[in-house]
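Hi R.,

Here's the input for the NAP complex you asked about:
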Amino acid sequence: MGLKEKQAYVQLNNGIEMPLLGLGVYDMHAAEAVQAVRFALETGYRLIDTAAMYGNEKQIGEGIRQSGIPREEIFVTTKVNNTDQGYDQTLRAFEVSLHALGLDSVDLYLIHWPIKDKRANTWKAIEKLYADGRVRAIGTGNYLLPFLEEMGSYASIVPAVNQIEFSPYLFLKNEWEYCREHKICLQAYTPLLRGQKFNDPRIQALAGKYNKTPAQIILRWAVQQGISTIPKSSHPERIKENFGIFDFVLLEEDILAMNDFHEGFRIVDDPMEMF
Ligand SMILES: NC(=O)c1ccc[n+]([C@@H]2O[C@H](COP(=O)([O-])OP(=O)(O)OC[C@H]3O[C@@H](n4cnc5c(N)ncnc54)[C@H](OP(=O)(O)O)[C@@H]3O)[C@@H](O)[C@H]2O)c1
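And here is the predicted structure with NAP in place:
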C-alpha cells in the first residue's frame, strides 16, 4: 500500500491535490524544527504549514531536504507576513520566503491575516504569483465570513484554501458552509487547542470508546468531515500519534455530538478585530 492510501487527500478548486493532515510548525526553531519536519515526513506527513512570521522557513527547507523525499511529493504552505502586506511588498516577501525555504516554488501561498487597508492589494499580488506559475494554489488566512464576502469587491480568483482557527469548541458553521458552497477547502489551525480541552470528559469518553487519544479524536473529527487540519508538535511520539488517525472511523452520531461542543473558545486573536 502506498503512502497515499494511508492518508486522505482533498482536491482543491483548481484541481490540485492537498493532504488533509499536515504538520504545523509555529514556535519551532533551529534544530528542533529541522528534526520535526524530517521526522514528520518519515512518518508519512506530506503537508508542512509554515509562515514567514514563524521565522523558521530556512529550517523547514532544511528538514525537507534532509528527509530525502522528492520535493514533488511534499505540499509546502507559507504565508505573507503582516508587516510585508501591500502589492509590491508581497511580491518581494514571496521571493524572500522562497530563498529562505531553498525551494523553486511553494504549493500554497496564504495571506496570513486580513490586514485592514492592505488585504486587497496583498491578494492581488498573490493572484499575480499564481498567474505567473510561482505557486500551485493560493488562499486566505483568518478570513471569517465578512472578509470572505468582501473579497467579491477585489478578488478575481476564489481562494483554494481558507485557514482559520476551528475546532469542536470553535465550530464556525457559517464559515464552513460558505467554504463548501464556494469550493474553498477549510483548513483548521490550532486544531488541538494547544491541549486545553484534552481533559473534557466528553473527549475522554470518546477516546476510551475508540481506544484512541484525545488528540486523535479531535483530528479525526476534522478530517472525516473533509476539513484539513495542521496540528503542531515537535515531539516524535506526538507527531506519530497525530498521524495515527487513518485506521478508525468515528460514528456519525459522535461527529454530530462533537459539532455541538461549540462554545466560541478561541486560542488566537479574533480576526474580526481587523475588519
Ligand atoms: N494562520 C494562522 O494565523 C495560524 C495561527 C495559529 C496557528 N497556525 C498554524 O496551525 C498550526 C497548529 O496550531 P498551534 O501550533 O497553534 O496549536 P495546536 O496544533 O492546536 O497545538 C500545539 C500544541 O499542542 C501540543 N501537542 C501536539 N500534539 C499533542 C499530542 N498528541 N498530545 C499532547 N499535546 C500535543 C504541542 O506540544 P509539543 O510541540 O511540545 O508536542 C503544542 O504545544 C501552527 O503550528 C501553525 O502552523 C496558523
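One thing worth noting: Residues 24-26, 49, 112, 141-142, 163, 189-195, 215, 230-235, 238, 241-242, 268 surround NAP (CB under 6 Å).

Cheers,
M.
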